[in-house]
Design goal:
Keywords: Membrane, Transmembrane, Transmembrane helix
Protein name: Molybdopterin-dependent oxidoreductase
InterPro entries: OxRdtase_Mopterin-bd_dom (IPR000572), OxRdtase_Mopterin-bd_sf (IPR036374)
Low-confidence stretches: 4-28
Largest sheet: 5 strands, mixed
Structural class: alpha+beta
Distance between the termini: 63 Å
Order of helices and strands: HHHHHHHHHEEHEEHEEHEEEE
Helix content: 25-40%
Organism: Rhodococcus spelaei
Domain Oxidoreductase molybdopterin-binding: 325-456
Strand content: 5-15%
């Protein structure tokens, strides 16, 4: 799949014409002197048509990669939007909070099935990683088109080039920031959540325009060759496709160093390898150690608390005195505040539920939690039918020191103020002396080190 350098100063032929007639101005949309003047002022160092010599590059291979992305990228985009909704924009706690006309229809995120957020976030991150080799292969396959000069000779070509700018820029930005976010802890000098949200819409705009412009040609290209035939074509019989109006096929092809079937196998194997190094993120047990691409989900606590920790007590600046014998929970919203010690919480009716917890970085785990139902605490506070709840943590440093829960989340029978996990007290890193655990709720809103809960009617 490697290209050899040729003469970088050979001008590009017309994109819209098939015969290379430079006087055919009708297909360009601009007067001949205009595009000729632009063509003469080619930026120095810009690769020309003869720089791209791979004999396997062409519309069919490009369309194969495009067909995979056409199916998979909308799934990544839609699961990302669902994850944004899971953070509760109606409750004012999603990031970014103010998105103008890009806001989504507000609704209360479901509590059933309990693994809903685990599914959407795991699919969003996992599939996004698996698609990285496909995206890179697609960019390689259209590289000659990205360096076409002049960039456009008609209104239709200008629209296509703008869609490419949005599409390529958007997907590269989303993949780069997404991969960095799951590898490192808050390394950005800006809000990852805000940038990722708006970046997704930039990509979506380019994607829709590009599909509208290119879909007919992609379908035609896919029908031009048989996939079965290509999968049975060895390197020795690999030949270039016929010259195409987009200039993807090399004018002066080099001898093939890889067949199309080998190129497809290479990209597919890359995706499968990434999938194999990612799938352990959602599986408890030995396979979690294989999730080397998600290191933040591999840090665990001790013993029965031996499951992933995203933010430790030290990182959250939780002092030992904050969670010592003097710790109390304050319940607000009723006629007067109610203060409850941990011993009093332990003496209340206890409930156990096996619930998953999933993080925005893609990892998830399912554990057995025990504690007091939130609806029982609401009754204790004097608000038997809360419309929402506001939970505040002892955490002093971080964007998730508080979270809001809607009515269904508070009243769900498995929604708990957890005191224990897997039969033992919570470890400090997992939220001792008490933490929230709610079905299908994003991990960062399952607040740890709870200080107070205000039940609002």
């Amino acid at each position: 799949m490697t290209d050899s350098s040729g003469d970088p100063h050979v001008p590009d032929g017309p994109v819209g014409g098939a015969d290379g007639n430079a006087d055919d101005t009708a297909s360009y949309g601009f007067p001949t002197p205009v595009w000729r003047a632009i063509e003469r002022h080619r930026p120095p160092g810009l690769p020309g048509p003869r720089s791209w010599r791979s004999p396997i590059r062409g519309p069919w291979l490009t369309s194969m990669f495009g067909a995979v992305l056409l199916i998979a990228l909308p799934i990544v985009f839609l699961t990302g939007l669902l994850d944004y909704l899971a953070y509760g924009p109606r409750l004012g706690q999603a990031i970014p909070a103010h998105v103008g006309w890009l806001h989504l229809p507000y609704f209360d995120w479901p509590t059933r099935p309990s693994w809903l957020f685990r599914l959407t976030q795991g699919l969003h991150v996992g599939l996004g990683l698996v698609l990285v080799p496909v995206v890179l292969a697609k960019l390689w396959s259209v590289m000659p088109r990205l360096f076409t000069w002049p960039p456009a000779r008609s209104g239709a070509q200008l629209l296509e080039r703008l869609s490419l700018l949005l599409l390529v820029g958007g997907i590269v930005f989303e993949l780069a920031t997404g991969v960095l976010n799951i590898q490192y802890d808050y390394i950005f000098g800006f809000s990852f959540y805000t940038a990722h949200y708006f970046g997704a819409w930039v990509f979506a705009a380019g994607f829709v325009i590009h599909v509208a412009v290119k879909l007919p040609r992609m379908l035609h290209s896919l029908r031009s060759r048989s996939l079965r035939t290509e999968l049975h074509t060895p390197l020795a019989e690999t030949r270039p496709e016929p010259l195409d109006p987009d200039g993807l096929v090399a004018r002066d092809p080099a001898p093939p160093t890889i067949s199309r079937r080998a190129a497809l196998a290479l990209v597919g194997a890359g995706g499968l390898l990434i999938g194999a190094l990612t799938v352990g993120q959602s599986l408890d047990g030995p396979l979690r150690r294989t999730a080397v691409l998600l290191p933040r989900g591999r840090t665990s606590g001790p013993g029965p608390n031996g499951f992933p920790v995203n933010r430790t007590a030290a990182a959250a600046a939780i002092a030992p005195s904050d969670v010592g014998t003097g710790w109390t929970l304050t319940l607000l919203g009723g006629p007067q505040p109610v203060t409850v010690t941990r011993d009093e919480l332990s003496a209340m009716s206890q409930h156990t539920a096996r619930l998953p917890i999933a993080c925005v970085e893609g990892w998830s785990t399912s554990q057995s939690w025990s504690g007091v139902r939130l609806r029982d605490l609401a009754e204790r506070a004097g608000v038997p039918a809360p419309g929402s709840a506001h939970v505040v943590s002892l955490e002093r440093d971080g964007p998730f020191g508080a979270a809001a829960l809607h009515s269904a989340q508070v009243l769900h029978p498995d929604s708990l103020l957890a005191l224990r996990v897997n039969g033992v007290d919570l470890s400090l890193d997992h939220g001792y002396p008490a933490r929230i655990i709610v079905p299908a709720l994003p991990g960062v809103h399952n607040t740890k080190w709870v200080r107070s809960i205000e039940f609002r009617s």
